[in-house]
Design goal:
This protein is an alpha/beta fold and 315 residues long. The protein has a domain of 209 residues: Rossmann fold (3-Layer(aba) Sandwich), CATH 3.40.50.880. It has six helices and 14 strands. The strands form three sheets. It has a nine-stranded mixed beta sheet with strand order 2-1-3-4-14-13-10-7-8, with helices on both faces. A three-stranded antiparallel beta sheet has the order 6-11-12, with no helix packed on it. Helix 3 packs parallel to helix 4. The longest helix is centred in the first third of the chain and has 24 residues.
Length: 315
């Protein structure tokens, strides 16, 4: 092959590679859904036009946080890094609160952490809470301590596909016993929306379900791979074209729920993190959650008292 021919061939290959890279980059990050019907339509024309995310605003706290202690659970293989939570931690500490990260599952140490805390925050869980820990958390909220649980879908693959077969159920998660104490459940799978989304179809929009101090000033929120919540009082619901991955059913789903005065569950662990906190009105919602955490009144202040060392709960 002549030098000129090699040059032409190289140029053609380079052009094909570059063109392919552009196509891949244009699809966005995240998994590709195996949706019934004509999946090729997802990647052409207007269906590829994602909403450009709005990233502005900042987290603030108007409530008095002086003397308050916020404990973040890091003892069950679950907590985000301090860097990911920088907007939350810095806002709390700048307003007089103390933020601690729990590191021990020992019942006595766990109870001591709650006795010294005004609020307890859980970001998912890879390990189950013991019976003693569940009793301690319940006593904590009964006394007026504030609980915030952020959960996420189980990551599973079946036959190389991101979606499980229709009707397939995931195993019970380590958070199930804790959530069930407050009458809240999590449906299997995750939520996505192919019609209206923020940059990626797994970034679904949510809107207030009614009036609540948790959604004051909020018009629209963004949740990344949120789960669908059942039970409690829905505070935020997804758009009506949102689909649950395990059933392929499009509906509105609860993504934030409140169980009584002292327990709030959010179906997304990333909504407070640095990557998503400025999407839409997420910073307003985060500010409201922080106000919720620091405005509880725990009595007695040293609750909970139980310190039994029961082992992990069985499914």
């Amino acid at each position: 092959m002549s030098t000129a021919a090699r040059g032409v061939l190289f140029a053609g290959v380079l052009l094909a590679v570059v063109s392919g890279a552009v196509v891949v980059a244009d699809t966005g990050s995240g998994p590709t859904p195996a949706v019934d019907g004509e999946p090729e339509a997802v990647f052409t024309g207007e269906n590829m036009a994602a909403t450009v995310p709005t990233e502005d605003g900042s987290v603030s706290l108007s409530a008095d946080a002086s003397g308050k202690t916020i404990a973040i659970d890091a003892a069950h293989g679950n907590a985000p890094s301090r860097e990911q939570l920088a907007p939350v931690v810095s806002t709390l500490t700048e307003n007089g609160a103390e933020v601690t990260f729990t590191s021990s599952q020992r019942s006595g140490n766990f109870n001591a952490t709650l006795r010294n805390a005004d609020a307890f925050v859980v970001f998912g869980a890879d390990e189950r809470y013991t019976t003693g820990q569940l009793a301690a958390i319940e006593s904590f909220t009964d006394a007026g301590g504030r609980l915030l649980v952020l959960t996420e879908p189980e990551k599973q693959t079946f036959g190389g596909l991101f979606f499980p077969p229709r009707g397939e159920s995931a195993l019970e998660t380590p958070l199930t016993p804790l959530l069930s104490e407050y009458g809240v459940g999590v449906r299997d799978g995750y939520l996505f929306n192919m019609a209206d989304y923020d940059n990626n179809f797994v970034n679904v929009y949510g809107t207030p379900a009614g009036e609540s101090e948790l959604t004051a000033g909020v018009d629209e929120l963004v949740f990344h791979e949120s789960v669908a919540l059942v039970g409690g009082e829905s505070v935020v619901t997804s758009g009506d074209q949102t689909t649950l991955s395990t059933t392929r059913e499009s509906d509105t789903y609860g993504v934030v729920t409140r169980a009584g005065e002292n327990a709030v569950v959010v179906g997304d662990t990333s909504v407070l993190g640095s990557e998503f906190v400025q999407r839409s009105d997420n910073e307003v919602f985060t500010s409201n959650l922080l106000a919720y955490l620091v405005t509880g009144e725990k009595s007695p202040a040293d609750a909970p008292q139980p310190s039994d060392s029961a082992g992990p709960r069985r499914a």
